[in-house]
Amino acid sequence: MTGMSLEVQVTIDAADPGALAEFWATALGYRVQPPPPPFTTWDEALEAWGVPAGRRHDASAAVDPDGHGPRLFFQRVPEGKSAKNRLHLDVRAAPGLAGDERMAALETAAERLVAHGATRLLRVDPEPPLVPGNIVMADPEGNEFCLD
Predict the structure, then answer these.
(1) 92-109 mean pLDDT
(2) Which of 45, 83, 102, 118 could form a disulfide with 35 if both were Cys (CB 3.0 to 4.6 A apart)?
(3) Could you give the domains of the chain?
(4) How far is CA 39 from CA 36, 53, 81, in A?
(5) Rounded-to-integer distance, Cα 20 and Cα 24, Å
(6) Alpha helices in 29-138 (DSSP H)
(7) CA 142 → CA 31, 32, 52, 147, distances in Å?
(8) Is it the case that residue 117 has pLDDT exceeding 90?
(9) Are 113 and 123 in contact (CB under 8 A)?
(10) What tens digit of pLDDT does each residue of 47-92 get?
């Protein structure tokens, strides 16, 4: 694969891709991906591309404004979430912190995300040396993630 540039995209099934993209953009400091030039809105772009009005909310994406993190792509699916995620995102809300300072930073992040529609599921207190502590959360559609 010499000379190939590969990027990672994380694809997430959703009932409401736009709302989930907004949540994750807020959670990660990302932004909802803007339409390509020369379009100023997604409705304008999708209209020009002939996408029927009823299908214009079938997908959305959140991107790292600095271009370093993976693109998150949200696609509408007819079925709801039915089991625990086999893969989840860890939101690194307290890198380099330990003990009470770490857990306080995680609690602050949890409160902020609950205000944006997340649900707090479980707090795992530190058990040195192997368990630094985290908070298990769910996004507005029930997808689990950890504040780490």
Answers:
(1) 95
(2) 45
(3) 9-76 (3.30.720), 89-147 (no CATH)
(4) 6, 17, 34
(5) 6
(6) 42-48, 99-114
(7) 21, 20, 29, 15
(8) yes
(9) no
(10) 999 999 999 899 999 999 999 999 999 999 988 888 888 888 899 9
Using alpha carbons, select from 56, 134, 124, 44 the residue that is nearest to residue 92.
Answer: 134
Angle at 47 between CA 44 and CA 50, to 5 degrees: 150
User: Global pTM?
Assistant: 0.87
Q: How far apart are CA 70 and CA 4, in angstroms?
A: 17
* Residue 81 and residue 141 in contact, taking contact as beta carbons nearer than 8 Å: yes
Bridge-based pairing state of the strands 9-14 and 71-76: parallel
Residues 6 or more apart in contact with residue 42 via CB below 8 angstroms? 35, 56
**110, amino acid identity:** A
| Contact (CB, 8 A) for 56 and 42 | yes
Q: 15: which DSSP letter?
A: S
Q: Are 145 and 92 in contact (CB under 8 A)?
A: no
